Every structure is written in structure tokens, then in C-alpha cells.
Amino acid sequence: MIKIHREFHVAIERKLKHMKRIHILLISFLLVSISINAKKDKSNPNVIIIYTDDLGYGDLNCYGNPTIQTPHLDRMANEGIKFTQFNVAACLCTPSRAALLTGSYPKRVGLHKGVLRGNSTTGLSESEVTIAELLKQKGYTTACIGKWHLGHQEKFLPPNHGFDQFFGMPFSNDMSTKEQAILGNKNYPYQLPVISQLDTIELDPDQSQLTKRLTQKAIDFISDNKKQPFFLYLTHPMPHVPVYSSEEFENTSLRGKYGDTVEEIDWSVGQILETLKKYKLDNTLVLFSSDNGPWTVYKTEGGSAGPLRGSKNTTWEGGMRVPLIAWWPDGISNSGVCTQFITNMDILPTLANLTNASLPANKIDGRDVSELLTNPYKELEAKPFFYYNKAGKLEGVRLGALKLHKDKEKYQLFNVEEDISEKYDLAKQMPQEAEKLMQLMTTFDKQLEKEKRAVGKLN
After folding, report:
1. Cβ-count burial 135-155 (b if 16+ within 10 Å, e if not)
2. pLDDT band at 24 (very low <50, low <70, confident <90, very high)
3. Whether the Cβ atoms of residue 61 and residue 67 lie closer than 8 Å to each other
4. What's the distance, Cα to Cα, between the start and end of the chain in Å?
5. Is residue 13 left, alpha or beta, with left meaning phi > 0 and alpha meaning psi from -120 to 50?
6. In whole angstroms, what is the distance from residue 346 CA to residue 352 CA?
7. Do 246 and 302 reside in the same domain of the chain?
């Protein structure tokens, strides 16, 4: 009996060991499958760019604002990557948006001289390749919801630049008879149109409802396209003045009307994130930023550049350094703060790499910085960045930590990492470095003048 009992136990132990091996193999197979699927998914992420208008570097709680509450953007920053040295290629709307969508300096695409208006006859050329056209190569469905500002005639509108859907406004929210009258200009002859695809469906919309309307359109687009890769360019017309918010947010922020507007935009971001969670769309890269710095001339109804010098319409840091937050549950494994200097021109080539899309045949100025999404602490090789002013004239250059800035006829040199507020001119202490950067400016601008492409025209 003892022998039989022992043999029984030995048989049971062998059976258990065999089952354990099977379990281990099954678990290993599942882990390999999950890993393969994750890698496959990451190569085809959904992309959402949320672009605000005139939001300053100091306007979000996660960037140090003490009175504007932005819990959803703070969450994005905590779970993703907050960039502290992200610059746009222009200090005002039209050229900044051209740079974002084409990966090029505005002068290269002919949209470097101010902003487009109701009497403009130019726009983004059909020969330029936008992010939307880039991603459509890979089967993405695309939408632009909100402010466009790259030409209001039909040939310049989003449906003719790679966007399957468009709902929004072709100009800034102050470009209407109604709003200009409030601002003191009674002779402005144009109304602000709301356009669906290529058709004007409304004039001078109730701007207190714009953030909610655009948010709902964005949610509908995500819902309709949740089973296929999509690109959503959600571009809020505020907090550009005049600032508005819906009744739910009105008079709720310690920061006043401006704070109400920003906090409603933060609510909108929360709605987008909640929609992604609802449909389990963790393989979605969300980028949140601004087209330029704050319009501080409007005092409390304008924004804040925080510790930065200057504002919108200037090439000081406050006009061109803005927030950028990247959030991507499936793709960002190391959250943190990235202090590397990058620009909005880098977004197009970065997305091209992430989606294996081909870069445009036309020369661009951005570079792929996708490695920062997996390692925000990686150091990039220094590359010159050139500051063009609101009239499209070159006014500065940055290389590494040093920035040479031309203020009227005077050149000043700053270390904008040690001296974020551009207070201490180093030109006399570092004359050779200043001279080197001057030469760099001259050489680049002459070359860009030769290489620039024609702006889009009606005829």
C-alpha cells in the first residue's frame, strides 16, 4: 500500500509539472502575442493635434499658472511629456499654422508676411504637402475642426489640403463686423463665416458656444472613425480675443474672463480624453499646443507668457515659446519633462516616422524628434532655429543655449536656458559667438530667399 501510495504521488507530481510547463508556454505565447500586437499598433497610431490660439507659456496650471485650473491638461502632462522649450516658427497665426502643417519655415511656403484677412487673395499652395495629406498616404481619415486661417477661398480650404472633413472658421474670431465694433473699429466690412466642407452655413456665430460645438464635432468624428486610423486637427479659435465661454464656465475662474475661456478649453480636452477612454483608443497620440504667445496688449483679457519676455507679435521668447504636451498611453512609456529645444516644424517629420509615411518631395525644415517620446531626457544635436518677425523679416537665431536677437538695429545675445527672461545681454562678453550667429543668420536667409516656393494664388 505504501509503494502504491508513493507511485500515485509521483504520477500526480509529474502531471502537475507537465501542466505547469504547458501554462508557462501558454503565458509566454500570450506575452509574445501581446508584444507583437503592441508593436503593430504603435506603428499606426491615431493622431490628434489640439491647437489653441494665443495661449501663453504661463497660462496653464502645469506650466505654473496659480489661478487657472487645468486638471485635464495637468493629467496629460503627468501621464505624458511636458515640453519646456517648444517654439513655433512665427509669432502670429497664419505663418505659425503654415509651419505646423507643412514642416517648413513660413517664408519657404510664402506665408510669412502677417495674417490673411477677408480681402486676401492668397493661401496655402496646393503644391504643399500637409500633415493630413501625409497621413492619408497611410489610409488615415482626416478632419480639421475649428480655425483654419490659411486662405478662405475654396481652393485654399482644408478639403483641398488633405482633410476629409472640415467644420470651422477661416479667420481669427475677431475678424467680423460684430466683433470689431466691440473692439472699437466700426468700419470692418467682413463677417465671420462658419464653413462646413466648402459651404458657408452661418455668419457671426454665437462665440460663447464655439468651444462646446467644436468639441462635440470632434467627439463625433472620433466616434465615427474609431475602427480605423484617424487624424484630428482640433484648432480652437480662443483664447484669442475676444474671449468667450459658455454659461457653465462664465464667471467661474479666479483669472476672470480669460481664465473662464482657458478652463473651458481644458474641459474640452477632458471630453476628448474621455472619448478615447470610452472606445479604448489608447493607441492615440494627442498633442496640445498654441500657435504663438499671448496677446498681452489686452491686459487681463489676454494671456500670460509667465517668466518669458515679450508676447505675441514679437520674436522674444514670450512670442514664440509655447506649451506642448504629448500624451500617448500605448506609445509613451517614460513620462516626464523634456527640456530639449524643438519646434512646431518638427511635428510633420515626427509623424511621418511614427506612421512610416513618406516625407514630402519638397524641402522642409523640421526634423524627426520621435525618440523624445520614448526618452524625454535624450539630448538632441543642436540645430539652428531662425526667428522671423510678424512682417516676415529675420530677427534672430538660436543655436544651443545661445540666442542672438536683433532689436531695431541693436544685436543682443542671451543664454536662454540660464536666462529664460532674456534680461542679460552677453554680446560684449562673447563677441565671437555673436559674430558667428550673425553670419549664420545672413547665410540662411539668403539661401531661403533662393529656395522659397510660391504662395498659393487665385489665378
Report:
1. bbebebbbbbbbbbbbbbbee
2. very low
3. no
4. 103
5. alpha
6. 10
7. yes
Asked which of 374, 405, 424 is the last residue of a domain, the reply is 374
CA 396: distance to chain centroid?
A: 23
CA gap 23, 104 in Å, rounded: 54
Pair 163, 62 in one domain? yes
Give the domain extent around 425.
385-457
Catalytic residues: 93, 149
Domain finish residue from 319, 339, 374: 374
Total domains present in the chain = 2
- In angstroms, the CA 89 to CA 169 distance is 22
- Cα 271 from Cα 120, distance rounded (Å): 35
CA pair distance 280, 39, nearest whole angstrom? 17
Number of residues in the chain = 459
Query: 205 with 273, same domain?
Result: yes
Lowest average pLDDT, out of 9-13, 219-223, 297-301, 359-363, goes to 9-13
For residues 399 and 318, state if they share a domain. no
114, three cell numbers: 502677417
How buried is 410 (Cβ within 10 angstroms: 0-12 exposed, 13-18 middle, 19+ buried)?
Answer: exposed
Residue 83 has pLDDT above 60, yes or no: yes
Are residue 296 and residue 433 in the same domain, yes or no? no
pLDDT digits (tens, 9 = 90+) for 38-56: 444 577 999 999 999 999 9
Same domain for 364 and 389, yes or no, is: no
